[in-house]
């Protein structure tokens, strides 16, 4: 057994949140640069503004996007780890609270009915998987809601199969149109249960942007979905163009013989995912 | 690139066409979902709005807190479609136009042409760019809404694209 004090996890969440808010992932920046070279007119103008935006964000130590999001924290906890100190969720929330105050990040979390802001961006959306070993992997994904709002889930029939999955992904992007800040990154969940499928889609968004699934049939779905989306023509910011999505990434899990759940979790171009292994 | 200073004359509004990039300077008021709801409650109660609406421009945005030495933190646009239900009534009361991101409804398109107003798209995700272009910020109403309160901004050279013009054209038409 290895003992990890949850204070270490709090510090880790703090570091990841501060870093995530003010920069794009390297891969995301590279894909935006490629897209800028391809586009013209208003779409090109939008992409060059976004690239200049990140330079300003780094120079002025300001968040890349004012929607510093709901704090999605995914933890893979080794089964040989004993957690000491305060409860894990409290530690994660402490890290979020401090990072959002010190980083001048927007506090965007409120009660769904009264709409009263919680004032410190907590609670984080925390998900823990228990795996093998004695390490703790913390992933921090600040999730803006311009894109989150455009997500959808369908319980397809097995007969709808692979084509049904592709159709659902394309449908989600068409419905979203210009609203989720395209070019988007699309997380797709295939299989599992209703709730498990949505989580698969969210986990897909924590992969390196544009990476391919190790299963060839899943990777083929990712590639075909991306080609179909980029043929729609929505383009950067909806101004028309070749780049409606930067990437499609799918995760898969066994499901029931009677079903084919498909979840589409939309992510804007501003991918700010950070990871650390403790 | 066309440079514009608010308020816009009718002639300037009519000279704008969907897809034109512009740099906009002048006074803006922020308002998001909750602030709009309160505007409507005030109007329904026969009370005045917290800002002079004739010719005013709304910026659909909620800023990050200001770091030391800045008027405001990052402050890019939010999704305008959520304000589809609010914009037509405000336009009929003389609102000069709006700034946000993404397509708006057919009702908004009609209200823009009827009232000779314009909807500009800011570049979604360019929060630091816009925040850095806001030179003054003042709280106008609803401080309990925090980032969703109404602020008056003085902005310099906001990079925008004419999204829906006063002639009924939209950059989002495909």
Q: What does this molecule look like?
A:
The complex is a heterodimer of chains A (278) and B (174). Chain A is built from 8 helices and 10 strands. With 278 residues, chain A is of the alpha/beta class. Chain A has 2 domains: 2-21 and 64-143, no CATH class; 146-271, 60s Ribosomal Protein L30, Chain: A, CATH 3.30.1330. In chain A, the strands form 3 sheets. Chain A has a 4-stranded mixed β-sheet. A 4-stranded mixed β-sheet of chain A has the order 6-9-7-8. In chain B, a hairpin with an 8-residue loop joins strand 6 (134-141) and strand 7 (150-164). Chain B is α/β, with parallel strands linked by helices. Chain B is built from 5 helices and 7 strands; from the N terminus they run βαβαβαβαβαββ. Chain B has one domain (2-6, 22-164): fumarase (Alpha-Beta Barrel), CATH 3.20.130. Chain B is globular and about 40 Å long. Chain B has helices at 10-14, 33-44, 87-92, 106-114, 127-132; strands spanning 2-5, 21-30, 57-59, 97-100, 118-122, 134-141, 150-164.
């Amino acid at each position: 057994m290895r003992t990890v004090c949850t204070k270490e996890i709090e510090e880790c969440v703090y570091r990841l949140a501060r870093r995530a808010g003010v920069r794009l992932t390297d891969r995301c920046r590279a894909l935006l640069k490629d897209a800028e070279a391809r586009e013209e007119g208003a779409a090109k103008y939008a992409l060059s503004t976004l690239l200049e935006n990140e330079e300003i964000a780094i120079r002025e130590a300001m968040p890349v996007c004012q929607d510093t999001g709901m704090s999605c924290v995914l933890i893979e906890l080794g089964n040989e780890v004993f957690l000491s100190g305060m409860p894990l969720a409290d530690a994660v929330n402490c890290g979020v609270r401090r990072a959002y105050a010190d980083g001048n990040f927007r506090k965007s979390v409120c009660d769904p009915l009264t709409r009263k802001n919680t004032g410190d961006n907590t609670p984080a959306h925390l998900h823990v998987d228990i795996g093998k070993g004695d390490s703790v992997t913390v992933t921090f994904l600040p999730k803006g809601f311009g894109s989150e709002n455009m997500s959808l889930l369908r319980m397809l029939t097995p007969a709808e199969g692979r084509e049904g999955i592709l159709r659902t992904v394309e449908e989600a992007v068409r419905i979203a149109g210009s609203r989720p800040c395209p070019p988007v990154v699309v997380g797709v969940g295939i299989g599992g249960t209703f709730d498990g499928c949505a989580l698969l889609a969210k986990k897909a968004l924590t992969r390196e942007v544009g990476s391919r699934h190790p299963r060839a049939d899943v990777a083929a779905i990712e590639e075909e979905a991306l080609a179909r989306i980029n043929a729609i023509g929505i383009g950067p910011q909806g101004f028309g163009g070749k780049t409606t999505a930067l990437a499609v990434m799918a995760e898969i899990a066994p499901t029931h013989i009677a079903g084919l759940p498909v979840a589409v979790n939309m992510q804007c171009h501003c991918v700010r995912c950070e990871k650390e292994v403790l | 690139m066309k440079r514009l200073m608010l308020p816009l004359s009718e002639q300037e509004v009519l000279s704008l066409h969907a897809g034109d990039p512009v740099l906009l300077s002048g006074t803006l008021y922020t308002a998001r979902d909750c602030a709009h709801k309160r505007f409507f409650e005030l109007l329904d109660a026969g009370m005045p709005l917290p800002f002079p609406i004739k010719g005013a421009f709304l910026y659909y945005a909620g800023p990050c807190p200001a770091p030391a030495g800045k008027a405001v933190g990052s402050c890019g646009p939010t999704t305008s479609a959520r304000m589809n239900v609010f914009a037509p009534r405000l336009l009929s009361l003389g609102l000069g136009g709006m700034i946000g991101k993404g397509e708006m409804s057919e009702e908004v398109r009609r209200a823009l042409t009827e009232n000779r107003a314009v909807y500009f798209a800011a570049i979604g995700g360019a929060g630091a760019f816009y925040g850095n272009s806001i030179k003054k910020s003042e709280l106008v109403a609803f401080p309990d809404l925090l980032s969703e309160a109404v602020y008056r901004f003085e902005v310099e050279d906001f990079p925008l694209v004419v999204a829906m013009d006063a002639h009924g054209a939209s950059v989002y038409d495909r």
